[in-house]
Structures are given as structure tokens and as C-alpha cells.
Amino acid sequence: MAKTPRGHQERVKAVEILLLWEGRVSRPRLAEIFDVHGTVLSRDMAAYAHLVPDNCQYDTGARAYVVTPYARPQLTDGRFSEYEALIGTLALRGLRAGVELISAQQHATHIQHGPFSRIHTAIREGKQIQIEYRSLNNPEAHERTIRPHALIQAGPRWHVRAYCDRAKEFRDFNLGRISRVDDPAHSLLPGAEEDQAWDTLITLRLIPHPHLSAAQAQLVRDEYMAGTVARVFEVRLPVSKYLVQAYRAAVDTSRQLPPDFILAVHKPSELPPGALL
């Protein structure tokens, strides 16, 4: 009996991952991940539907397979790390072109595929959702109605950018602190087009920490900046703080010192409010 090609097996697993975590899978979505002919991708989706018919149904209007309410992982483990690896934000332990690759970056977001797919659907369709949330300021579980419009992957944690009806402003919500997500519903809450901070791009410059020696500073410039004086980013205002955290860059260079901090934010006092909070 002929063996099933490994590439086909990987793509069929990808079909399940996208179904569970995004709520649907289509040929254009798979084409964003796999560089194979569209006809092949259609066969992969049909093969999955044949293998696990209870997990999906075909939506002729959307031209996509959509997840069923009772879908369960069958070919995968149903872990968020599988979704991260598929969309390219976290390398799985294993072989890449014959070279072993182990990533020290591990996700710290605990969320099930059902709630995540409802958040993904709400973003895609511009709808609102009711969530149960906890925060450091309010550690008791409480309900919030939000209209999400973007996902943010920040190091080991994921956030959803959303307008919060309770706070009357756009905020970032840690996915790991969301314990319940209701089905998306029609929304009159402000959407992405009204998120002025999100639409604001700022220039963020990272430089060698000023307390490094000349030789150490040159080493840092060679390592992080290709020998130039600074690493420059054009970044959305709400995302800049996560970038600073990811690079472990000092904001207060009198307190945040080498060797714990070898990078520093250039002129942090000149950045707009919200850039470093």
C-alpha cells in the first residue's frame, strides 16, 4: 500500500488546527501557509472532512469549512502551541531542513480552542463578545463586553486589542486571563477604525546602554544593529511597550543597569503617552 506523503499529513493536521483555533478553514487561508497548488489544498480539506466528518461542515457562501459546536481534536493535541507554530510565531522543537531547532521561547497563554475561535470570529466579522475576565487590579472574575479587532503576540503571552464597554476605551486583554467567551453578537461598540492609538505609528529607537564600555557598546551595535548606532522600529503605539519588553530595553538607565540590561530606549521622555506603560 502506498504511503501518504508527509506533506499531505502535515497539511491535513493544519486543517484541524485552523478549524479549532480560527473557527474555519479555506483554500486561501491554507495558501498563506503552504506553497502548493490550490487544487491540492482543496483535496487536503476534503480529506480531513472525510476523516473527521463530525468536526466540520462546508459553508457554500463562505467557501470554507467551518467548525461544528462539538468539534474535538482528533489528529492534533488541541494545544495553543500547535497554532502558534503553524502560523509562524513559535518554532516547534524538531528538525528544520535537517537541522535541529529548539526554541527557548515558550508560550504562557492558557486558552482553549473554543473561546479562541470565538474571539477570532468576532474580529473577522466585526462583532462583540461577552467575556469573563480577571486582572491584577480586579482579580475576581467579572464580565466585560468587548469588541475585539486585533491579536497581539508579545513574547510568551497573547493579547486581544478591543474596545471595552465597561472602561469606555480601547484596551489590551491578556488571553490567559479570559475564562469564558460567549458567542459573537452584533455590535454597536466602536471598531478598529476608531482606535486612534492603534492607528498611531511611532518611531522607537533602541541603543546600547549608556553604561556599557565603548567596546561593549560596539559589540551590542554589531549584534543588534548591524553596526549602526540604533535599532529603529516603526510600530503601533499600543504595541511599543511589548517590543521594549521583548528586547529587555532599559527605560530608566539609572536603575536598570548592565548586565541585566544591555539595550536602552533612546529618549523615552519624548515618546507619546502610552508608549511605555
From TrEMBL:
It comes from the Bacteria. PROSITE patterns: WYL. Residues 9-83 form the DNA-binding transcriptional repressor CapW winged helix-turn-helix domain. This is WYL domain-containing protein. InterPro entries: CapW-like (IPR016634), CapW_CTD (IPR059020), CBASS_pafABC_assoc_protein (IPR051534), WHD_CapW (IPR059019), WYL_dom (IPR026881). Pfam families: BrxR_CTD, WHD_BrxR, WYL. Residues 116-181 form the WYL domain. Residues 202-271 form the DNA-binding transcriptional repressor CapW C-terminal dimerisation domain.
